[in-house]
Amino acid sequence: MRILYPFAKRFIAGENLETALKNIYKLNDNGYLCTIDVLGEDTHNPGQAENARDEYIALLKAIETHHMPLDLSLKLSQMGLSIDPALCRKNVEAVIDAAGQHTVRFDMEGSNLTQAILDMCLELHQPHSNLGIVVQAYLHRTEKDVATMIDKQISVRLCKGAYKEPADIAFQDMQAIRENFLKLAHPLLKEGHLPAIATHDETLIRHILQFIEKEKIAPETFYFELLYGVRRDLQKHLLDQGYQVRIYVPYGSAWLPYTLRRLAERKENILFVIKSLVQETLGLGKLGK
C-alpha cells in the first residue's frame, strides 16, 4: 500500500517527528498556528497506549525552545480509553503536565466514545486549564454539550463531524448539518473561550464572517482551523484578512490506516478531498472580509 503515500503526504506532515517539525516550523514562519496530531487510535494493549503517550512527550521536549504556542490533539482511544479508563487518564495527565502553556485538546471520535471523552474532559479541566475539547455539529446532542463547555469556559473546536453515524443521533442532510453548525458557532463566538471554527466550507465561513462583523467579535478571541494541505488558498485568504488561522497537522507512521479509515468511513470524505483539490485550483468564491 506504499503506493498511496504520494497521495497521503499532501495531507500528512511526515512519517516522523523530524520531518513533521520542519513543516510545522515552516507554517509558523508563514504566520499560521498549528494543532498537532500524532496519528494513531484504537490501541489494543497498554504498551501501545504508553508508546503514544511517549511520542507526544517527545514532541513536547523537541519544541521546548520554540516560541509559538501549539495545540496538541489527543485521541483518547489512542491513550487507552477502551482498554482501561484509569490507564488512559494517567497517560493523558502525563501529556498535559508536559505541555506547560501549550493546549491539549481531546479530539472527538465515534459516538460510542463521545460521552466518555466529554466526561474525562470535564473531570480534568479544573486542575488543567490548558485542556480543550472537539465537538461535532452533526450530532443532535452537541447543542447541550456546547452549552456545558461555554458554562465551564472550556475551549472548543467545532467541526462538522467525519464518522458515519445513524440518523437517530446525527443529522444526515448537509443543509441540516450546516444550519446546526452555525447555531452552535454563534454562542461559541460570543460567549465561548477561544473557540476554533474548523471548516473548509465556504458557505459556512461566509456566514461566520458576516456574523463576526455584525457582532463586532475581535479576531484575537477565536480561530479558524483548517486541515494541513487542504484549501491552502482559503487558509492564506483568512490569514491575510487578519484572522488567527490554525492548521491541523497530522504526522506519524500510522499514515496508512489514517488515510484508509478516513476515506472508508464516509463517501463524503472522498468527495471532500476531491472537491477541495478542485476548489483550490479554481480559487476562492466571494468571501470578503
TrEMBL record:
Pathway: Amino-acid degradation; L-proline degradation into L-glutamate; L-glutamate from L-proline: step 1/2
Cofactor: FAD
One Pfam family recorded for the sequence: Pro_dh
SUPFAM superfamilies: FAD-linked oxidoreductase (SSF51730)
Enzyme class at the top of the EC tree: oxidoreductase
Recorded catalytic activity of this chain's protein: L-proline + a quinone = (S)-1-pyrroline-5-carboxylate + a quinol + H(+)
Family annotation (InterPro entries): FAD-linked_oxidoreductase-like (IPR029041), PRODH_bac_arc (IPR008219), Proline_DH_dom (IPR002872), Proline_oxidase (IPR015659)
Keywords: FAD, Flavoprotein, Nucleotide-binding, Oxidoreductase, Proline metabolism
Proline dehydrogenase domain residues: 20-272
Gene3D superfamilies cross-referenced by the UniProt entry: 3.20.20.220
E.C. no: 1.5.5.2
Any one GO MF annotation of this record: proline dehydrogenase activity
Name the record gives this protein: proline dehydrogenase
